[in-house]
Write a structure and sequence with these properties.
single chain; mainly alpha; globular
C-alpha cells in the first residue's frame, strides 16, 4: 500500500467523525443560512491567512535531506499567496462585513488549530505540515465540489460570493494528485509518523472550527428573522 493510501486508511475514523459534523453535513446539502456561510468564511479567512507563513516556516525548518519537500513548497506558496483576500471579497459579496471579520479576529477553535500547526512545525517535526495539507485539500475538494453549488442554489447568492471555494475545488484536484506523488515518496518512518499524527489531529481541530460556526439551517434562519 502506498503511503498516501495508508494515510487515507489511518485517518478513516477521524474523517468519519468530521463528516458527521452538522455544519458539514447540512452545508453539503445546501441546508445552511447565509449567516452560517458568512461565519464559515470568516473563520476560513483567519486560518487561510496563515497558510503561506506556515509554509515558509516549514521550508526554513526542513534540512537538506528534505530538499524535495522544500522545493515543493515553492509551488504551493506561489499558488496560495493572496487567497485570504479572495475570502474577504466573498464575504462582501455574500452581504457580510469583511472589515469586521478582520477586526473581530478568530474564534478560539480557529486560533487553537493555527497555533497547533505552528507549534508542531517549530517544535516537533516540520514534515508534519504535509498532514495538514492532506486534510485541508481533501476537505476543500469536498466542500467546493458539492457544498458551494448546493449553498449557492439554496441561498441565491451570486457566483462572486464563492470564488474561494470554487477556485480551490479546481486547484486542489490538481494538488491532491501532486500531493499523492509527494507523500508516496516519503520513506522515513519518522516522517510518515509525523504526517499521520498531524493529519489525525487536524481532522479533529478543523472539525472544531466548523463546530464553532453558529449554525442554523436555512429554514430555521428564516423563521428566526420572522419572529
Amino acid at each position: 500500500m502506498s503511503f498516501f493510501d495508508a494515510l487515507i486508511a489511518a485517518t478513516a475514523p477521524e474523517r468519519a467523525v468530521f463528516a458527521a459534523i452538522p455544519q458539514i453535513r447540512d452545508g453539503l446539502q445546501g441546508r445552511i443560512s447565509r449567516e452560517t456561510y458568512v461565519a464559515y468564511l470568516a473563520q476560513a479567512y483567519h486560518h487561510v491567512r496563515h497558510t503561506v507563513p506556515l509554509m515558509q516556516l516549514t521550508q526554513g525548518r526542513l534540512d537538506d535531506d528534505h530538499i524535495r519537500y522544500r522545493q515543493a513548497l515553492d509551488d504551493y506558496i506561489a499558488e496560495e499567496t493572496g487567497h485570504e483576500q479572495w475570502i474577504l471579497n466573498d464575504i462582501r459579496a455574500a452581504g457580510g462585513d469583511p472589515d469586521r471579520t478582520v477586526r473581530d479576529g478568530p474564534q478560539a477553535a480557529t486560533e487553537i488549530m493555527v497555533a497547533y500547526a505552528y507549534d508542531y512545525v517549530s517544535r516537533i517535526d516540520p514534515m508534519g505540515f504535509f498532514g495538514m495539507v492532506f486534510v485541508l485539500e481533501s476537505v476543500s475538494i469536498q466542500l467546493a465540489g458539492l457544498g458551494a453549488e448546493a449553498v449557492r442554489g439554496s441561498l441565491g447568492l451570486p457566483a462572486s460570493a464563492f470564488t474561494y471555494l470554487v477556485s480551490h475545488g479546481a486547484l486542489d484536484q490538481d494538488h491532491i494528485v501532486f500531493l499523492k506523488g509527494l507523500l508516496d515518496g516519503v520513506g522515513d518512518a519518522g516522517d510518515r509518523a509525523a504526517i499521520t499524527h498531524m493529519a489525525r489531529r487536524m481532522f479533529g481541530l478543523f472539525g472544531d472550527v466548523f463546530r464553532s460556526v453558529p449554525h442554523y439551517v436555512a429554514a430555521e434562519a428564516e423563521l428566526s428573522h420572522a419572529v
